[in-house]
Each structure stands twice: as structure tokens, then as C-alpha cells.
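Practice problem: predict the structure.
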Amino acid sequence: MNKTQGFRHCIYLALLLVSPSCFALDLPNVCKTIDIGSGSAIKTITVDGETYDAAQRNNCPAGTAVRYVGDPGDQTEKQKPTFILRNNAVLRNVVIGDGSKSGTNRDYRGRGGDGIHCYGTCTLSEVYWDDVGEDAATFKNNKASDVFLIQGGGARLAKDKVFQHNGPGTMKIEYFEIEKAGKLYRSCGNCSTQYSRTVQVSNVVATETGAIAGINSRYANGVAGDKAVLTSVSTSGRKCVEYLGLTSGEPSEISPVPGACTIR
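Answer:
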């Protein structure tokens, strides 16, 4: 059974609630650790219009990944990202952060800063976050046709959300594992410019996670509300949390809006 088949088997068993062994994030083997620096000196890696396969670049054996870790800080806003992706870039076989370095005192050494920033359509394939910092990845774009695709991978130790959706377009999260997090996905609740966003989540196992998707099912400025479709999702937490989206201030949770969140 290969990794993808194993994960699909785990999803099936998790949905039947008969396999506790599935409920743990299984990180790939790491062949190399790259220190990206600390504080204001973090060396962000930009991937523009190409595929960045960290395993191939570092001559890793099949099934291994490369870890990127530095000293990016905690949950504070406006941290530097580890990667910036532009123009249909693909990022593959990467582990961001190192949970073993954070320890019980949360000294932040192992966290992943602001993770990945995607500008326009991009793909994350088998990308893992061993200790999420501010966010795992943020979708920063300006076209409704853009797609942010997450295939495989996983994340853990996210005090708040894992994926932040600031621009328009669609985010697709497939065959993903999440452990000890606030939310898997959040549509920006108070961006100065708001959009109607779409998120599609399928074949996801979440443990000790508050919610799968936080969407703005209504906007105070009249923009059409977000849409979420969740398929084959296993979680002990909430599946959809709906908010009134704003352009400033803190958004408040509202009663579900019919048709905003579809669960299959």
C-alpha cells in the first residue's frame, strides 16, 4: 500500500470511527534541514512559474522531504514567509518548521513564521507544517479565476487557522491531515477589500481541531457570501463556522445561511 492508498484507507476507516491509529499526523522522512535565518534576516525563497521539488533539488531518496526551519517567531502578524509562490508555481516535498524544537515552553524556535504566500494560481503537493507559526499558507491574489490547490500533506500545532484566504478565487484542499489546530481554513473576515470566495475540502482527517472551515456567509458591504463544500471529512470538531464578513474590526459568528456550506 503506497502513501496515497494508505491515506485513503485511513480516511475510510476514520469516517467509520474504527481506527484510532489514523488520527495522528504522519510526517515524511526528512533527508535535509535548511536553516532560513532568523528575525528580519529570514531568507524567503521565491518560486516563480516553476516546480520547486525540494527532494529532487537535494537528491533525496524517494519518499523523503526537505525541512525548512529558522527562527520565524510565534503568532504575531506580518512575519516573513518561508516561501513565496507566483505564476502557477508548484511546491513539493517540503516540511516547514520543526515541532521538536518548540518544546513545552513554546520557545517558537520550530515554528514556520508566515509559512507560504501564494500570488495567483499555485499548487502545494505533499507539503507539511510540523509547527505552524502565524499561518501555514496565505492565498494573496486578485483574480476570481485563480485556484489555490493543496494536495496531500498535513499540518499541526496551529493555534489559529492553517490556511488563510485573502483574495478571490477558489481554494481546494484534498487528502490532508490536520492535528491540534483552530481551523483548517478561514476566509478573511476583515480584509479592506472583500470578495466572494469558494473553498472545497475533500478527504480530510482532523484531530483536536476546532473547525474545518470558517467562511463569511454574508458580507456587511453587500458582497455575495462565500461558499464551502466539504466532502468525506472526519473531525470531532465543527465542520462549518459562518461569519458576517467586514472590511474592518472583528467579524462575528452568525447563524448558518442556507446554501453557504454544503456537507457531503
